[in-house]
Amino acid sequence: MPAPPDLARLTVRFWGVRGSTPTPQAGWLGVGGNTSCVEVRAADGTRVVLDAGTGARGLGYALAAEAAGGPGKTHVLLSHFHWDHLQGLPFFAPLYIPGQTVRFYAATGADRLRGLLRAQMSPPYFPVPFPELAAAIETVEVEPGVPFQVGSITVRPFPLFHPQGCHGYRVEAGGAAVVYATDYEHGSPSHDEGLREVARGADVLISDAQYTADEYALREGWGHTTWRHAAALAADAGVRRLFLFHHDPAHDDAALARICEQARERFPATDLATEGLVVRV
After folding, report:
1. Which residue numbers delimit the Metallo-beta-lactamase domain (predicted)?
2. Whole-angstrom Cα distance, residue 182 to residue 205?
């Protein structure tokens, strides 16, 4: 059973769970239509944000309300730079609040990271240039396999097998561990073994599960895995709970419910990552 809120060592909230593109249409919104954005908070209030897909818009409003115009710092861990993981960034409210600091982390040089963030808000794509944002912007390069601290939270980045590169994160505090493994394709022995080891014993594994086996047969090389592989990974790594994530935009709520039931036959402690879901460990 999850720990009660006052005893939770880590609290996970899903703000966006879709892959590839948002799905704002009837029949998809039970699971959620926003793209990847996950908040992980430690018991002392320290938090990290995993990716800034369209789900970051709602999170940003919540953070702005919490700050109430005062100073604050938000830590955003970016897995990679494909659109579905950045689409919410121009609408992320803390960026527009004086006194706020937003620190971005990624497995690339700090200057290059700043340039990539600036480019996706440059004319003619967005009317507010990145250098004119009111918040202080900081960029940090992380090194795969080398842990770093964000307050009371320890973060370990690790590489994933995905076109143009991607990195997941193991987030730990108070003896609890959450592993975020979005956008990866199985089949690379070194990456598969590395992911299995970094996920070993985690309380929560958030795993890409975009395809069925039949779909994957037509999409090999696209950089995503199947719910079947995610369930096998969870079992092999001995995780406590698996959350299927990065749902394909073609999968409506009914299709995802069927996928979850099938995955539970292989790994019973499986749930769908759904927008608004809060998990305490």
Report:
1. 34-233
2. 10
pLDDT value, residue 31: 98
71-86 pLDDT, tens digit each: 889 999 999 999 999 9
Structural domain total, the chain: 1
Token match 């292989």: residue? Answer: 266
- Rounded CA-CA distance 161/199 in Å is 15
Range of the domain at 199: 5-280
CA distance 69 to 96: 11
Enclosing H/E stretch for 38: strand 37-42
Is the distance from CB of 212 to CB of 259 less than 8 angstroms? yes
The CA–CA distances, whole Å, from 93 to 70, 96, 114, 258 equal: 13, 6, 18, 36
Amino acid (1-letter code) at residue 122: S
Amino acid at 41: R
**Rounded distance between C-alpha atoms, residue 233 and residue 47, angstroms:** 27
φ, ψ at 241 (rounded to 5°): -140, 140
User: What's the pLDDT at 245?
Assistant: 98
DSSP element (H, E) containing 96? none
In terms of Cα–Cα distance, which of 265, 146, 158, 162 is closest to 205? 158
Segments of the chain with pLDDT less than 50: 1-3, 5
**pLDDT at residue number 167:** 98
The secondary element (H helix, E strand) that includes residue 262 is helix 253-266
Q: Which amino acid is at 76?
A: V
pLDDT at position 8 is 81
3-state secondary structure of 85: helix
CA 22 to chain centre: 15
Cβ-count burial of 188 within 10 angstroms (0-12 exposed, 13-18 middle, 19+ buried)?
Answer: middle
| Rounded Cα–Cα distance for residues 219 and 203 (Å) | 31
CATH number, residue 139: 3.60.15.10
Residue 14 tokens, joined = 């899903």
